[in-house]
Amino acid sequence: MSRDIDDVSMVQILAPDGTPTGDTEVGLDDERLRDLLRLMIRARRLDRECMALQRQGELTVYPPFEGQEAAQVGSAFALGPNDFVFPSFRELAAAVVRGVDVVEYLEYHRGTWHGGPYDPIENRFAPICVPVATQIVHAVGWALGAKLDGKNACALAYFGDGSASEGDFHEAANMAAVFGAPALLFCQNNGWAISVPLAEQAVAPIASRASGYGFEGVRVDGNDVLAVYAVTKTAVERAHAGEGPTLIEAVTYRIGPHSTADDASRYRDDDEVAAWRARDPIDRFRRYLSDADVTDDAFVHECETDAARWVSEIRAKLISLEAPAASEIFDQVFTAPPRTLERQRNARPADA
Ligand SMILES: Cc1ncc(C[n+]2csc(CCOP(=O)(O)OP(=O)(O)O)c2C)c(N)n1
Ligand SMILES: [Mg+2]
DSSP letters along 120-133, please? Predict the structure, then answer.
């Protein structure tokens, strides 16, 4: 085990079996609670389809988020329409919540366009960011700008436990504190940074670092969608009220490999994965909603059917996307390309 998963020094509303352990009133009516479950079911179905698409050669590489649905859906669900998300590369579930066009998002992974062609402004969701932790600096910069412009909006940066070891995390956190930026630093602590376990990244809870910078830090059960929603909502309200940044550490787990290019069985035990499967975020919420008579089996079945239909439409559109001309690599970089690039451009095969 890379850490003690029974550590309870964190905010939790639902136990792994769906039984309430705290106040379940988080300000969401039954319809919105059903939306949360529907979104998590859609997200998982999509994630699994993306894994299959990669194995079938339709995507180049894909980083799965299975196990992290509550962390992403619960947090993105708590944001207002003017708030801005700065994702890393594993936040497709959050993108779904924000209404980002999934086919356009996946063009990045298909290699048919550079960096995700969706409009970042439309759904207030920045482009996928692969250089780990750099998006935290972007988020704090955006938040500071929003504050200076007098906008009532905050930025949320998603990053991982490994990313919290980067200098960019520390620089962004300190800057957010000093300038009182309306920024949420949302760490999905999924136990691993590729093959490096959490124990080699941190000896204290990541959330506890916030006090060193002088702002709020909260550790939450990242597989409990109600708890994630509640703590994020509170942080959003604080940011909107001019009360500055919050660091949220959502303790969760990456059930799959780091990406389709990784074989996680080379560095972690099946027992660990099984222990986290037993804490599945969707099963937990589904059981709670069913016990509370908010949903029934027919509703869950309808969500699954709807998700399957939605995903098959995405698949069909995605696989019909043509590869771009190889010569595009020379476009949109220089107004006056250097001679070396011109030579390469001219040397390309005629059909490229
Ligand atoms: C600056 C930088 N260094 C290294 C990498 C290679 N890399 C990609 S993901 C990753 C680990 C990230 O771990 P974590 O922050 O925990 O996020 P997770 O992958 O678990 O979601 C590394 C080292 C990178 N993309 N950027
Ligand atoms: Mg990680």
Answer: TTTTTBPPP--STT
User: Which ligand does the CA of 129 lie closest to?
Assistant: 1
CB of 75 within 6 A of ligand 1: the answer is no
Q: What is the pLDDT of residues 327-345, one digit of tens each?
A: 788 887 888 999 999 998 8
The pTM of this model reads: 0.94
Residue 9 lies in a domain: no
Is residue 254, in this structure, part of any structural domain at all?
yes
Within a domain: residue 82? yes
Same domain (yes/no): 266, 345: no
Say how many Å lie between the CA of residue 348 and the centre of ligand 2. 40
Of the residues 90, 238, 254, 286, which is catalytic? 254
Q: Which residue's C-alpha comes closest to atom 25 of ligand 1?
A: 131
Q: Is residue 18 part of a domain?
A: no
Q: Judge if the beta carbon of residue 136 lies within 6 A of ligand 1.
A: no
pLDDT single digits (tens) 145-167: 999 999 999 999 999 999 999 99
Rounded-to-integer distance, Cα 90 and Cα 68, Å: 9
Domain span holding position 333: 326-352
Cβ atoms within 10 Å, residue 273? 17
Tell me which residue of 62, 97, 64 sits closest to 78, measured CA to CA. Answer: 97
Q: Quick check: CB of 252 below 6 Å from ligand 1?
A: no
Shared domain check, 247 and 173: yes
Q: What is the domain count for the chain? A: 2
